[in-house]
Amino acid sequence: MSIIGQRDEEEFGPRFAGIATFALLPMAADVEKVDIAVVGVPFDSGTSFRPGARFGPAHIREQSRQLHPYHQYLDAFPFKELQVADAGDIPVEPYNIVRAVEKIETAAKALTSSGTRIAAMGGDHTIALPLLRAAHAAHGPVAVIHFDAHLDTWDVLYGESIWHGSPFRRAAEEGLMDLNRCQHVGIRGGIYDPVELVEDGQAGFEIIHAQEFQNRSIEDLVSQIQRRVGTGPVYISVDIDVLDPAHAPGTGTPEVAGISTREFFSVLRGLRGLNIVGCDVVEVAPAYDHAGITGLAAAHTLWELITLMGLSR
Ligand SMILES: [Mn+2]
User: Fold this and answer.
1) Which single residue of 168, 231, 253, 297 has CA 20 to 30 Å from 122?
2) Domains along the chain?
3) Under DSSP, is residue 7 helix (H, G, I), strand (E, B) or coil?
4) pLDDT tens-digit map of 229-271
């Protein structure tokens, strides 16, 4: 099977020209088989504060034009060794969260039914729940590495159990995650009461706080994550607000004193060898972005994750 990579800029025009697929890759319908499907999930009705992540996928695609074929730190060609393709956007709906989540789950299960792995672009963090249902259907209970300023293991808000602050609590209740192997990274904001930290532990998570980046080495943090998640299937979920608002202002619930893109990517690059079965990057809200920096951070995050997925076969 021949693998089709990025659009050739000398043949088809420069990177800034034409319609943007993710990283100028082919559409999924135009290739024989897809190893990794980049798929947009333009849903943000679970948002509790600033809305707008429904426009995330289009923005990330625009900001992904500058992604190049070779990863110099991981010595890999992520688009040459596996067929990566843009599967477009899942047709969600904006008014009913339960119905939208069902549609995302159905579409994700259809995509993954023949071994394709998903790299999703949100959307708000609600979408991690149906994506984890699909990952669980294909692989059983998965470890979750969750990069976020917030715990996202809260319970009910305004009578709704499914919203962007609850996906990992619901996932724990549904048995989708291996509760001995889940790890938060970058936590700092939005706690109502310390009991939430206790409940978070019951939902399966160990916490690396953003503050720990001040005094611990990247190597030390990476080895804690590696020890925690082990060799079984891993799902990586990235809320772009894990980054400091200086690095990612275009998001719904920004929190100060976050990590930098350099710190974040240094941790990610240490995760080579993990068995990554799926991933998402969520909460990119372009209306609050400046000069595309949040979209750029999200596009490069997906590129890092896709490279890791290629190295984890
Ligand atoms: Mn989140």
Assistant:
1) 231
2) 9-310 (3.40.800.10)
3) coil
4) 999 999 999 999 999 999 999 999 999 999 999 999 999 999 9
